[in-house]
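Interim report to the steering committee. The following record documents the input for tRNA(Ile)-lysidine synthase (350 residues).
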Amino acid sequence: MSAPHPAVAAARSAVRATLADLPPGARVLVACSGGADSLALAAAAAFVAPRAGWLASAVTVDHGLQPGSADVARHAAARCRALGLAATVRAVEVPGGSGGRGAGGPEAAARTARYAALAAAAREAEAAAVLLGHTLDDQAETVLLGLARGSGARSLAGMAPARGPWRRPFLALRRAQTEAVCRALGLDFVLDPGNAAAGPWRAADGTALRRAAVRERVLPALADALGPGVVPALGRTAAQLRRDADLLDGLAADLLAQALVDGAAVVLDVTVLAAAHPALRTRALQTAALRSGAAPGALAAVHVEALDALVAAYHGQGPVQLPGGVVARRACGRLSLGPARGAATADETQ
């Protein structure tokens, strides 16, 4: 029996390593859109799972954002079944459609709907893990997008290989490798026009979607200027920063717990926060903002700095508006974060 193509072997090895902690009989769900990354992932899981005693299946999410999306989703599920995976399709409604809704635009709206559908499918299947097809190229794009937002080290840490049920076996593989897997196995994959800079989805200002622009324009320009190792270098940077951020986030969580006066309303003791190191205080404030409902994809360093000023550089300034309809106010030695419509207005200068 001949050895598998190197890319196929790498994909199978990555899936095997990602799921190594699962016992035999564990259920695994593969998210498959029909693109090269997720189809290669489905093929690797279909090969590895039965040999390790895991029960693998697949789910395809139909966002309904372009004509024929239902057919594309059905074909993706059919490809998974041909590989030996039980597969289902879940249709979701994306708020705002292809125009998106909210600070993150259509990308963020589709992502939120997709992850909700995948989480529901995982619960119903009692899956111990959900496999996602993000590659090293996706990681590099995420790092650059985080750098452009100025959102701090956690944003630059990119996507975690494993967090909760979500697992990303291909974060060390290039996109060219997943395409090579599909070619080697004779799998026809689809190209989503929504991922193209000139595609039908646009940012709020009418320009190309940020990730698509980074993929097609920024990364090639960086590789041309800095050499072909720029994508792996960005991946290594993400891994290093993730280790640092994990430690600091743990310490910041302890600080937030100490400062929290009212967890339901996210009310914090300013004195406790002011005594902490800025690196921990800003992380605690970012977590508090997210907990109060601030939009994750739109919360940037400038917002966290404004929150920090309410603690460490307070001179009677007014409330801070956060993306997602959240407002922060300081009053009577307390910092309160919550929905703008229900926030109190008295004693803001105390």
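The chain has two domains: 6-222, 245-342. The committee is asked to note this result when reviewing the revised timeline.
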